[in-house]
Design brief:
The two termini are 22 Å apart. Helix content is 20%, strand content 20%. By secondary structure, it is of the alpha/beta class. It binds pyrazine-2-carboxylic acid (VGL) and zinc ion. Pathway: Cofactor biosynthesis; nicotinate biosynthesis; nicotinate from nicotinamide: step 1/1.
Length: 230
Amino acid sequence: MTSRDFVPALIIVDVQEDFCPPKGSLAVPNGRSIAEPINSLLAEPKFALRIATQDWHPANHISFANNHNPPKQPFTDSIKISNPLNPSEEPYTTRLWPVHCVQDTAGAALIPELDTSNIDVVVKKGQDSRVEMYSAFYDPFRQPTVSDSGLADTLKERGITHVYVVGLAYDYCVKATAVDAAKEGFVVYVVQDGTKAVGGNEAWEECTKSLEADGVKVVRMEDEEVQRLR
Ligand code: VGL
Ligand code: ZN
């Protein structure tokens, strides 16, 4: 690959009913409003690959507060989880959520405002009940990885060099996906017009700093990184 190669892919993360007002169980404020900028990105001619992801949980998923005994409070409570294949390794604390994006339910559907006609690949993630999976690539465990969506292989097979990430939510699945894409060696941009945060302004600032520290550039629609897609 020479430095002049530009083979961009678009990854649209979890633009699903449960993450959008008015009825989503884990609605991100103004989540539905990102459909318009995302549709205009989808129409950019230079994308070699347009991917949508869906959070796609079994009903007994570990991230649902009511699956714990005694039941826990969504949003405020967290639990310590460790690698189900290697329980002494890699424990970390993860936040619990309301039931959301259960496989084959209306809440798991992509929102109808999204123009899905030129989406090439749909990646389903979070299907293993034992692990949380914010990233569209894999769960956070490495000794070993428990669940891999195959997304890195898909991008590499197509010769992708640059990845543009949008969707929901900025401070969770968009962030984790963008950081893993950078670790996989792609040049990664998050287009801020195409994303919203669960945690409001404070979360927004913190997330932007942490993305930049991990080598992801946060850009806007009018910036040259987006304009070069025309
Ligand atoms: C997400 C919380 C739980 C996301 C998914 O798509 O950002 N957030 N599951
Ligand atoms: Zn989820």
